[in-house]
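Field reference: sequence -> structure
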Amino acid sequence: MKPNRRDFVKYSLGGILAASTAGAMAAKGSAKKAASGKKKNILFIIVEDLKNIMGCYGNPLVKTPNIDRLARKGLRFDRAYCQYPVCNPSRSSFMTGLRVDTIGIYNNVMPWSTNLSGCTTLPKLFKENGYYTARLNKVFHGGNKHDDVEAWSETFDMGTKPIGTTGEGRNMTGGEVKWCSWLAAEGADEDHQDGMLATKAIEVMRENRDNPFFVALGFAKPHDPFDAPKKYFDLYKTNELMPPVVPENRTPEAKYTIASGWKTSFDKFTLQDKREYLRAYYAYVSFMDAQVGRVLDELDRQKLWQDTVVLFVGDHGYNLGEHHWWNKNVLFEDSTRVPMIAVVEGETKPDSVCDKFVELVDLYPTFADLCGLKAPDNLEGISFRPLLSKPEQRWKKAAFTQVRRGGNLGGMSIRTKRWRYIEWDNGKLVATELYDHASDPGEYHNLAELPEFADVCAELSDILKNGMNKFE
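Structure field:
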């Protein structure tokens, strides 16, 4: 389904005021940088398939001391959302600053450039403004086909060494789903892809510390397959892990809600299978966290915090058994919500939290704003720079995420403070879903067909069609 973009309201009065504030702040920041002769660096850390499962997001079980340290140093966003809960559409959106329907990318096959010509991507903007730009691993969807090759000064891709591919492991579906496996692997951290990426990121920042840099660091894990050094598996005891409880009286999920043959294999999971899946995912989150820590240590050593915008984000969320689903590509909260942490010295305050809605499509204009660069006029997100120093101010009233199923059946979702509302449409309205987060944070009870919620659905449907970037 494709909402009418001509009807989208980019700024309400509150949005105009916020944009004006951001512009004034950017001008002031640019003047300060000009006086000091230095531009802000960018360290953009992108993590694949990471849900909000770290300690700083309230999970006491998963061990993430370094990401938690980053959160204590800056601003944690509690309501950040992707535009599409699959890697390529999500990354294509935030790397171009355009929403998914504008770029027309709904799968992992088509490159972002398929329907775009002359697009200035995020790294290209920085390179054109004199920045050294480096891509480490997957930033767009991966490979030259999906990359913006001319946007980078250098690119670095590396894989796991042979020793890191050996160890004890198991496929949790008996081989039915090839990726659904774990490996408590041999070798040290730097024998594995993310360990080598952290080493290279340290080297790149050290060599380019005297010039403005835009370093995009794409950590591969916790994306499947779940193979991490054994010591990270040892952090968790399988028999102590419990999958989420899925209510038996929930509204049954429609066939288009979770549209994948993998579901048949997941439905066969035993309790042991589920525990092993959780252990493997947690292990790689902890492994990735350790690599983040190495990069943060380098920022300390090189005294780069003062001159560097650091932003940590997941490309989309992930379901770990909620709705009996063990993957992404659904419009439920766990797949659409992403972790996001920002540290910008002079703007963010230590150990602060923002509960306002931000979207990944907002990243591009925010980076440009922070570095005093003129962004393209066609960007469809807005800079959330004002939230960095004043996270409690009025902001967007909602976030928007979508998916596409076979036969051009599209699902479009709006998330407000209280509600999630979804419309499924392939030329005519097929179905609607409404979940009340005040009483049903797991989104298990669809209220859309109840007459007492008709007015709520009508209001949210109007915002879904006409209200992107409207303010509270």
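Note: The chain has one domain: 5-395.
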